[in-house]
Amino acid sequence: xxxxxxxxxxxxxxxxxxxxxxxxxxxxxxxxxxxxxxxxxxxxxxxxxxxxxxxxxxxxxxxxxxxxxxxxxxxxxxxxxxxxxxxxxxxxxxxxxxxxxxxxxxxxxxxxxxxxxxxxxxxxxxxxxxxx
Length: 132
Description:
Blueprint: H1 2-6, H2 13-23, H3 29-32, H4 42-62, E1 67-69, H5 76-91, E2 118-120
Parallel strand pairs: 1-2
């Protein structure tokens, strides 16, 4: 797009459409065809995308984290299925017999769980959390 704006390459319809979207603060359709679903304006989308990339890069560089940002995954079902598969293999239980059990933790997590995973990033809509 920079080269097209400088006149070094032809401005295609695709680039022009993307440019208009960015000027309107919207995520270009060409990005969304390769992206996770998001209704955020482009600035918030980029901040969110950077956070997701940082989470994955940290995981690659430092190994499995103690907690996982569940809403930061592109397809959360694949992650939760992986957690169940690991448990099923470890305990030699058919995965079809497993269900999730949840426990809300208060405070900072200092070590990984023996089984399962600690997650964060969940949110409630039209409700509020009462820890008591």
